[in-house]
Amino acid sequence: MSALTAPPREGAPRLAVRGLSVRFGGLAALDDVSLHVDEGEVVGLIGPNGAGKTTLFNAVCGLVRPSAGSIAVGGLPLAPDPVRLAARGVARTLQGLGLFRGLTVRENVLAGRLDAHDPGSDTQRQLADLGLAEHADRPVGDLPYPDQKKVALARALVAEPRLLLLDEPAGGLGTDDIAALGDLVRHTAATGCAVLLVEHHVDFVMGVCDRVVVLDFGRVIASGTPDEVAGDPAVDEAYLGIEVTAS
Amino acid sequence: MNRRQRLPGQRPLVRTLALAAGWTAVALLGTFALDPFRNYQLALVAAYLCATAGLTVLVGATGQLSLGHAALMAVGGYGYALTSNALPFEGAARFVVALLAGAAASAVVGLLLGLAAARLSGPYLAGLTLAVVVALPAVASTWSTVLHGDQGVQTDFEGVPDALRRIIALEQWQAMVAVVVAAVVVTGLALLRGGRFGLRMQAVRDDEVAARLSGIPAGRVKVLAFAASSVAAGLGGAVLCFVAQAVSPGAYTLGFSLLLVVAVVIGGLGSILGAALGSAVIVLLPWLIGRLTAGLPTDAAQRLDGNLAVLVFGLLLITVMALAPQGLHGALASRRRRRPPDTPRQIDEPAPQKVLVPTEEQR
Question: Which chain regions cross the lipid bilayer (chain B) (predicted)?
Fold first, then answer.
C-alpha cells in the first residue's frame, strides 16, 4: 500500500485531496485523484504535459470546480474562493509568474501581505532573505527572469503560508539558481510549512522532495519516495524514462 | 487613516494634508487676482477636475475605462439640485447637505454600475458606460415630473455669505467653493490611491488571478474603485450645478463625456496633476478658439464655432499621443528625471493585456 492511500498520520494533513475529479466537457483532466501533504513535508507532483498537475493546483485554489471529490486544508473543507485561501494560510505561485507589472519589486511583495498590521517590515525582511533588497524599488519588469521568479516566490512567502503551492518553480532557472531554490524550499518546509510543487526538472524534484506523486492522464500512477518512484516501471514508461535520457 | 502601519513609500498623512492645504491656499488667493470671467472659468476647471481626477484614478489604477463619467456628473448635479430645492432651510447648510446628497446619489449609481463593471472589462465596460450617457436624456424625460426632461432642474441661487459680500464677488465666491470641493475630492483620491487600497487596485489591474490568490478581493476592489470615482464625478456635477444654478441633460452629452476622457489622456493617464492640466485645457481651448474665430466674418465664424474645437481636440490628442504618449504630466516628469541608462524597459515581454497602464510613479 502506498503512502498516498494510507490514512493520514496523527492530526489532519495540511492538504488532503480525496477522490478529486475535474472534467472539462468530456475530458477528464483529473480522475479520482487522492493525495495529501503533511506539515513540514515537500511533495512533488510530476507527470507529462497535460497530466493534470496544474489543474489539480487550480482546483485546490478554487479556480476550477471539481466535479467530484473533496479538498481539505488543515482538516477543514476548502471554500471554492481563491480570495479566502490566503486567510487560510495557503499561498501559490503561478506558472506565468503572475507579477504585477506596473508595480515595483517591493510593492509586488507587499501585495501578498496587505492584510497584515505592518506589511512594510515583513516585506523588507522577505526581500532581504531572498537577496532582493537592493532591487526593491525597481519596476519588477526590469529584473532578469530568475529574479522575477524570486519576487513571485517572495510574494507567496511573505504571507507566511502553512501550505505553499509552487507551480514550476525551477522553470527557466540555471543550475545555481535551482540549487538555491532547493535550499529555500527545504528551509521553508523546515519551518513547518507544507509544500506541494509541480515541476518538470527531475533532478530538482528528486533532490528536494520527501515524496513524489506521479500523474498521467489525470490519474495517479505512482507515488512514494523519490527512489521508489524512480524505480517504478510504470513511471519510466509514462514519463521518467523519456525525461531521464533526455537530460 | 487607521492605526495600521504606513506602507513603505506611502506619503505620511500629515504631509498629504499639508500639501493639499498649500495648493488650496494658493488657488484661493489666486481668485483675488482673477476677473469675474476668469473666476468662472476657474470654477469650471475645479468642477471638471473632480470628475477627471476620479476618472484618471479609475483608468490608471484599475484599468477600468469609463466613457460615462458625464452621466455620473449629471447624477451628482440632479442629486444636488433636487435636494437643494427640497430643503426648508437656506445658506451654507443647504449647500453642504445638497452637495452630500449629490455625492450619495452618484455613489449609489456608481455602485450599481460598478457591480456590472466588475464583471466586464475593456471595450465591454466602455460600451456599458457609453450607454449610460446616451440614455441620460431618455431617463430625464421618462421621469419628467421630477427631472423635467430636457429642460432640467433649476436650483435656488447660493449667494456670497453676508460677511464676505463686500470683498468677494459672486464669481469669485463660486470659484472658491469649487476649489475647496475639488481639493477635498483630489485629496481623498490621492489618499485612496497612495495607501493599501491603491496597491490592491493596481494588483487587480495587472493580474486579477494573482491578486485574488494573494487574498485581494478583486471584484470588491473594482466595485469600490468605480464607486469612489463616481462620487468624485458626482461632486463635480454638484459643483457645476451650484455654479450654473441648473442641471440638464444637454450639459452632459456624449461629447462632453468623451472630452473628460480626452482631458485625462492629454494630462497623462493616472496622474491627478495631469487631470488638472487636462481640465484646464478643455475649459480654455474652446474659449480660445471662440476668441480667434470672433475676428472672422460672421458667416465663417458661425460655421467654425463649435466644430473647430472638436477638430482641434482631435489634433491635440493625436499630437500628444505621438509626441508625449504619457501626456503632459508624463512629458514634464520625464524632463525632470531621465531614466538611468542601466535600467532599460524590457521590450521582449509579451504585451500587457490591459492597454491602459499608468504612466508615472503612483504617488
Answer: 12-34, 40-59, 66-83, 95-117, 124-143, 173-192, 223-245, 308-328
